[in-house]
Amino acid sequence: MNRFVESSDWVPKGDIILESAAENAVKSNQHLLVVAGPGAGKTELLAQKTDYLFQTNLSKNPRKILAISFKKDAADNLKERIVKRYGNEYGSRFSSLTYDAFSKRVLDQFRTALPEGLIPQKNYLVEDENIIESVFSKHFQGFSQLEKKSKKSTIDNALYKNMKSDIWIDLLRDSEYNKACLTFKMINILATRIIITNPKIKDLLQMTYSHVFLDEFQDTTDLQYDLVKACFLNGDSIVTAVGDNKQRIMEWAGARKTIFLDFQRDFNSDKVSLIMNHRSAPRLVDLQKRMYESLGENELEAHSSDNWSFDDGEIKLFISSDEKAEAERIVPDIVKKYL
């Protein structure tokens, strides 16, 4: 890229019109929390922000942008959108990873920076249930007879409170009984330990990534947030966290309930709320608002895109005895409207 533009001259790409709050989020060069509901265009905002940062040279070559998502499909979708719209010139400077992939990259690249007793075998396996069960059965009598939920609780209590335990030693190293095997949470803990105890590695990460995007932020766990803080708190990488506090579906998996407030406090970030729903017609948005009210939630601040007419959208209620009866009612209705 040879020509750069001033911030005031930059325009969104792909015939996209950004609401004013979204444009402010794109152009912000401070730590930022973006709260956005369903259909608000969270992925599109990050794609446009990538273009803005490269076009205005706020992310100077050879520095890159790092995007971290909770799920692999979200990470892949964002990367594909960047490459498809802007080409490999952007794609080569845009890393889109899950938290698990990012922590594993840190561990694999810098594992020898760990204390000798915590360095895992180089070609360790990941989440091999047979090996993990074998190791825990060695240390906990009756482990193999436990229910799945009880096994998980036992593993969590044993692994994530004492890194010097015999179980850690058995999992970190090959033995005559099994190969080295780590869980993703162990990898996260080790990656965080690497960054905390090696300031030069933290500096290297921040030199590599001028900006960091945290997608699906509402699903972030305590361990994942610890890694984010270890890597990017009190540095010059600019962090943008994007999430929807109405879509917290991962609390059962340990999602941090106070993650938005914690991020604003820890990173001293600004906050922007997107209210436009590009996906849903006005009648559907109105139903969503009423549903939130009926569930005792705070009022949903959202409105439909101007591309919709005021009375667009249709809501029907079908009551069926089973899935087959449901399909027999719904399919003809869809065929009638769209085929």
Account of the 3D structure:
The chain is an alpha/beta fold and 339 residues long. It contains 14 helices and 10 strands. Strands 3-2-6-7-1-8 form a 6-stranded parallel sheet, with helices on both faces. A two-stranded parallel sheet has the order 4-5. Strand 9, helix 13 and strand 10 form a beta-alpha-beta unit. It is globular, with a radius of gyration of 23 Å. The model has no long low-confidence stretch (mean pLDDT 88). GO terms for molecular function: 3'-5' DNA helicase activity; ATP binding; DNA binding; hydrolase activity. This is UvrD-like helicase ATP-binding domain-containing protein. One of its GO terms (biological process) is recombinational repair. Keywords: ATP-binding, Helicase, Hydrolase, Nucleotide-binding.
Describe the structure in brief.
With 339 residues, this protein is α/β, with parallel strands linked by helices.
Features:
single chain, 339 residues, alpha/beta, Rossmann fold, 3 domains, 6-stranded parallel β-sheet, 12% strand, globular, DNA_helicase_UvrD/REP, ATP-binding
